[in-house]
Design brief:
- The complex is a heterodimer of chains A (360) and B (304).
- With 360 residues, chain A is of the alpha+beta class.
- Chain A is built from eight helices and 20 strands.
- Chain A has two domains: 225 residues, 3-Layer(aba) Sandwich (Rossmann fold), CATH 3.40.50; 113 residues, OB fold (Dihydrolipoamide Acetyltransferase, E2P).
- Chain B is mostly helical and 304 residues long.
- Chain B is built from 13 helices and no strands.
- In chain B, 30% of the residues are buried.
- Classes of the chains: A alpha+beta (360), B mainly alpha (304).
- The interface between A and B is medium-sized, with 30 and 25 residues.
- The structure holds adenosine-5'-triphosphate (ATP) and magnesium ion (MG).
Chain lengths: 360, 304
């Protein structure tokens, strides 16, 4: 959409006493982009979002919406549609009055308010619920009302703080798709907070991974997943096993095997190898590409319906996990204790500098 | 499906434990009732019996024959009407002043961090732990002609003649407000604490100025607490005795003072009882209205 605004955050810092919660954060949200802030609990996601919304006064820094500097602007002047984790619907107002609230504030004429509220109700499959009290709605319906109220006045920016975390898994997954479709229709610049990496991968144009008040990585979901760039990000996004890698004279060794990779981060010393469970395969000699091969023992096989999880211990004792899709005509999985050869394509092999920090 | 049948064998021809489950239900109910029994008994003996007795007395003449004499006199004698008027006016004024002072106080407390709020709350509650009589005497000491306030005021040259601060309506109000304030602040504060801060943030993100957010969201949601606190204060004021008696200096006659007079000076238990019954009836009406109002405020306030 033509009127979508970029957000530019520069040198944003906030400390509580000696604890730095936001540490010189720079963040660019592109016009019309769906950007997700992802990170472990306490990494500063909510704090950053609240600073953008204006509910939290940073110690220093600049926040621009397009050309406008807003860091000192009161929240009610920022024209932001905000969706809260617990919805924050006004319990003393009906559904329709909740949705009409921002329109009444903007002195939209009553018939127009009625029309727009009705349209919003239709859009969120809430037709006929206008006169209901908030307390008479289910969690999913409240979520929709909160969304409707946040977008009905056509805000320049939409902010959401874990809006789906109170919903059950099925509803959450459906709402993820619906939210994304809504964003595609509106084209409003959106900043979304979650600590669910799968949700972030599903919905985002780009993901910013926060670590202790800093942005550890910002990129498209696929790029981050395939090339996390650091062990912290690799652990936080997707599952993975890690192997210690020893580099000497340009040769890498891990778990007793020589391994090759498109990119080696260090010339000599240690680094870590990231093994995504679904990229790891059981080797039977028929592979056409170049593989890094490891020998080990099956510890257990876990049947999960759509996938089968093999827990394997390699020759040097490192645990790795292999995930494969199940089919109706599968042979029985390898029994616990049986030897196994697994491998990962050289092209899929990612070596990361070991900064000695883990996400857990 | 034969295993369950084994367990059910005793009831299988019957109702799948329905009778036994019903028995359990009633046993539980009975247990709960037994827990409440001592308190209920106490209330019955200490409250209902005397009230019933007063009720009976109020419908008898001096000889003990059934009569509406006391009620008739209440209607006939204008001094009774004045007493009720005074009682209402003083109670209303006290409640109004308590709201004016207490609402901002409760709001301030509710916005503080919890620890600080608890500390301040102790200050609000401190008077509760001092005897009513002591507090009222303290006001007498402060407010009388040669009291602290008059002495200081004149020493500072703010006024030259001792001001009449007590033994009048003003003094009564000062004392009553001081004693009633916690009763308003407590329920109001707990209601305000319960208001989710995100609601105000939501209002402000939707475009509300802080003042508009307060009036459209916070105030309506605080109304149930305000109604509860105000009703409590008003009802307590209606039956207030000590403070008006001491600080009013005989110029402020509330119903309870009149009741005391009827008994102590005129030994007229019937008249006193009739006053008590009317006061009780009025109190109940106020409570019912307040309950209606606070429920209404919860559901429909701030709009419609
Ligand atoms: N008012 C406050 N006073 C002191 N510390 C605070 C305050 N608010 C937040 N913090 C701290 O700031 C850090 C970041 O908090 P924030 O709420 O932004 O985390 P988050 O990433 O949203 O976490 P979560 O996923 O648990 O919501 C935390 O360590 C938290 O303890
Ligand atoms: Mg948070």
């Amino acid at each position: 959409m033509g009127n979508a605004l970029p957000i530019a955050v520069r040198h944003l810092s906030k400390a509580y006493g000696a604890v730095s919660v936001l540490d010189d954060v720079d963040l660019d949200v592109r016009p019309g982009e769906f950007l997700t802030l992802l990170g472990p609990s306490g990494s500063g996601k909510t704090t950053l979002l609240m600073a953008i919304a204006g509910f939290l006064r940073p110690d220093k820094g600049s926040i621009r919406f397009g050309e406008q500097e807003v860091v000192r602007l009161a929240p009610h002047k920022r024209e932001i549609g905000m969706v809260f984790q617990n919805y924050a619907l006004f319990p003393h107002m009906s559904v329709a009055r909740n949705i009409g609230f921002p329109l009444r504030l903007r002195r939209v004429p009553a018939p127009e308010i009625a029309r727009r509220v009705e349209a919003a109700l239709e859009m969120f499959q809430l037709g006929g619920y206008g006169e209901r009290s908030i307390t008479q709605l289910s969690g999913g319906q409240r979520q929709r009302v909160a969304l409707a109220r946040a977008i009905v006045f056509e805000p320049r920016i939409i902010l959401m703080d874990e809006p789906l975390s109170a919903l059950d898994k099925q509803l959450r997954e459906r709402m993820q798709i619906e939210l994304r479709q809504l964003h595609d229709r509106l084209g409003t610049t959106t900043v979304y907070v979650t600590h669910d990496q799968r949700e972030a991968l599903t919905m985002s144009d780009r993901i910013a991974v926060l670590d202790r008040g800093r942005i550890a990585r910002i990129d498209a979901p696929r790029a981050i997943y395939d090339h996390p760039g650091s062990r912290f990000v690799a652990e936080f996004i997707g599952e993975s096993s890690f192997l210690d890698v020893e580099v000497t004279d340009g040769i890498c060794r891990a778990a007793g095997s020589v391994v090759r990779a498109p990119h080696v981060p260090v010339a000599r010393g240690r680094c870590v190898m990231m093994l995504r469970p679904e990229r790891l395969r059981i080797l039977d000699g028929s592979e056409s590409e170049a593989m890094n091969r490891f020998d080990g023992t099956v510890q257990s096989a876990i049947y999960q319906g759509d996938t089968l999880l093999l827990q394997i211990v390699l020759a040097d004792g490192s645990p790795v996990t292999l995930r494969m899709a199940t089919r109706g005509d599968d042979a029985p999985p390898p029994a616990g204790g049986s030897p196994i050869a697994v491998g990962i394509a050289v092209g899929d092999t990612v070596l990361l500098a070991d900064e000695g920090r883990t996400a857990a | 499906m034969s295993a369950p049948a084994l367990n059910l064998s005793r009831d299988v021809d019957g109702d799948f434990h329905a009778a036994a489950l019903r028995r359990d239900h009633w046993r539980e109910r009975l247990g709960q009732a037994a827990l409440a029994a001592p308190a209920l008994l106490l209330v019955g003996v200490m409250v209902l019996l005397p009230v019933g007795w007063l009720f009976g007395l109020s419908f008898q003449d001096d000889a003990g024959a059934p009569s509406l004499e006391h009620y008739r006199r209440m209607l006939a004698e204008p001094s009774y009407g004045r007493t009720f008027r005074t009682t209402f006016e003083i109670s209303l004024a006290t409640t109004a002043i308590c709201i004016l002072l207490g609402y901002p106080l409760a709001y301030f407390l509710s916005q503080l961090p919890r620890r600080a709020a608890n500390l301040c709350m102790i200050a609000v509650l401190l008077p509760f732990w001092t005897s009513l009589l002591v507090r009222t005497y303290a006001w007498l000491v402060l407010l009388q002609r040669s009291g602290l306030i008059n002495t200081w005021g004149m020493d500072l040259g703010l006024w030259s003649e001792p001001l009449q601060l007590v033994h009048n309506v003003g003094g009564t109000l000062i004392g009553m407000v001081h004693i009633m304030l916690p009763f308003l602040v407590l329920p109001l504060y707990s209601t305000m604490r319960g208001i989710d801060g995100d609601l105000l943030r939501a209002a402000s993100s939707l475009g509300s100025t802080p003042a508009h957010g307060f009036w459209s969201v916070f105030f309506p949601l605080s109304l149930p607490g305000l109604a509860a606190g105000s009703a409590l204060v008003f009802v307590l004021c209606l039956g207030f005795y000590v403070t008006p008696a001491m600080l009013g200096g005989g110029k402020v006659t509330m119903v309870s003072n009149r009741i005391a007079n009827d008994i102590e000076l005129f030994f007229n238990w019937g008249a006193a009882s009739a006053l008590g019954v009317v006061l009780l009836a009025i109190t109940l009406v106020v409570l019912v209205l307040a309950a209606r109002l606070s429920r209404g405020a919860g559901l429909f306030g701030g709009g419609h």
